[in-house]
Amino acid sequence: MSVVRSKICGITRLEDALVAVAAGADAIGLVFYARSPRAVSVEQARNILAGLPPFVTTVGLFVDMPRSEIEALLAAVPLDLLQFHGDEKAADCEALGRPYIKALRVRAGDDVAALVGAYPSAQAVLLDTYVEGVPGGTGQAFDWSLVPAKLSKPVILAGGLTADNVGAAIAQVRPYAVDVSGGVEAGKGIKDATKVKDFVRAVRAVGELM
């Protein structure tokens, strides 16, 4: 049996984080990008993290934020993992001295293996949908056939996933993990408990068949 992990991103409320954890999600994501409707303040993030049980990975999402600002935020919010969604180079990601994953937006014609290879120090890469001018969270899926069968890093698959299509996505891409935000929401930044539970259940069900 292959275990596929799940991350519920765009968490803005402790109650949503606890729903995700109770459903069996392995990680939650907090967005520190002011232009996102799912952005959280330092105070919100601290309150969410303080209420979490152990063994849940907390991930902070950043988009081209200056290093000094990230360092100040990390001094206040004890995140486990950093997720870079902008145009950060490997050196920028490494400069924080923390474990990180790099989000790459995929479109037809991309050499995905080369894109992944540019971040040798990343713990994993997150493959999302390319939309001009939007760093992520579009709710749109990309052509999963663009993902090579073997890459140099574990793959976290994102982009337009829902409980209805995540099984097919996992069967085709066979990622290490899947990441969802809009696909489990009642509104921007507000999670739907039933959708969260259905999503994690669907991830686990397909994992048991692999």
TrEMBL record:
Pathway: Amino-acid biosynthesis; L-tryptophan biosynthesis; L-tryptophan from chorismate: step 3/5. InterPro entries: Aldolase_TIM, PRAI_dom, RibuloseP-bd_barrel, TrpF_fam. The keyword Oxidoreductase does not apply. Residues 7-201 form the N-(5'phosphoribosyl) anthranilate isomerase (PRAI) domain. Keywords: Amino-acid biosynthesis, Aromatic amino acid biosynthesis, Isomerase, Tryptophan biosynthesis. GO terms for biological process: L-tryptophan biosynthetic process. It catalyses: N-(5-phospho-beta-D-ribosyl)anthranilate = 1-(2-carboxyphenylamino)-1-deoxy-D-ribulose 5-phosphate. SUPFAM superfamilies: Ribulose-phoshate binding barrel. Gene3D superfamilies: Aldolase class I (3.20.20.70). GO terms for molecular function: phosphoribosylanthranilate isomerase activity. Its EC number is 5.3.1.24. Belongs to the TrpF family. This is N-(5'-phosphoribosyl)anthranilate isomerase. It comes from Phytopseudomonas punonensis. The gene is trpF.
